[in-house]
Write a structure and sequence with these properties.
45% of the residues lie in helices and 18% in strands. It contains 5 helices and 5 strands. It has a 5-stranded mixed beta barrel.
Length: 199
């Protein structure tokens, strides 16, 4: 360990602090990455995902996630990792303490922001497919599996909702409906069975 003692002794205080930030940050980041590759600990990267509302299915909404969305564990680790290494690189290249600290903060914040954006995108991809069935009332679609006329036996319909096609059980109270018949949802019974009528 003589080489380490010699190397460490040649560093000024700022470089020592930056190494103490960069090395642990890098090790934690590597461990996080390995765990996520093997599907362990991925839950910590997620936000609470609310049930899908009408606005979620029809509009993209604001892309921002608020200042608190930056401060995830992954984002903070990325900040320290990039802050430490960029500070060391700039310090070795320029020798300027103020410049190295300024650029280290800028690059660290950029890394934290980037991680927050990636987590936000991953969260959007993982949004639950659960739909509030009452959102389908008034929507139009087509019959997928023929619906008998008696109103007790079910068929299936495909409903276009925003950019999604939803397949649901359906009955008709106005007569039999053949495959590919255009229909409109008029009611919902039993919580998940659509009542449709021919358009």
């Amino acid at each position: 360990m003589d080489w380490f003692s010699e190397f460490w002794g040649e560093l000024d205080l700022l470089r020592q602090v930056l190494y103490c930030i960069a090395v642990p940050g890098t090790l934690i980041l590597i461990i996080q990455t390995i765990l996520m590759v093997f599907g362990i600990g991925g839950e910590s990267a997620e936000f609470d995902v609310p049930e899908v509302e009408a606005a979620d299915l029809t509009t993209t909404g604001a892309d921002g996630f608020g200042i608190m969305g930056l401060f995830t564990f992954q984002g903070i680790v990325a900040f320290f990792c990039v802050f430490g290494w960029s500070g060391i690189v700039v310090m070795n290249a320029s020798g300027s303490t103020l410049l190295s600290l300024f650029l280290a903060f800028v690059f660290g914040f950029a890394a934290m922001y980037g991680v927050a954006k990636v987590i936000r995108l991953m969260t959007r991809l993982a949004v639950s497919g659960t739909i509030k069935m009452n959102l389908l009332i008034g929507e139009t679609g087509t019959v997928y599996i023929p619906i008998p006329e008696d109103g007790t036996k079910r068929g299936k319909v495909n409903i276009q909702l925003a950019e999604r096609i939803v397949e649901c059980d359906a009955i008709s109270e106005t007569g039999a409906l053949a495959t590919n018949t255009p229909v409109r949802v008029t009611d919902i019974i039993g919580g998940n069975v659509l009542v449709v009528e021919k358009m």
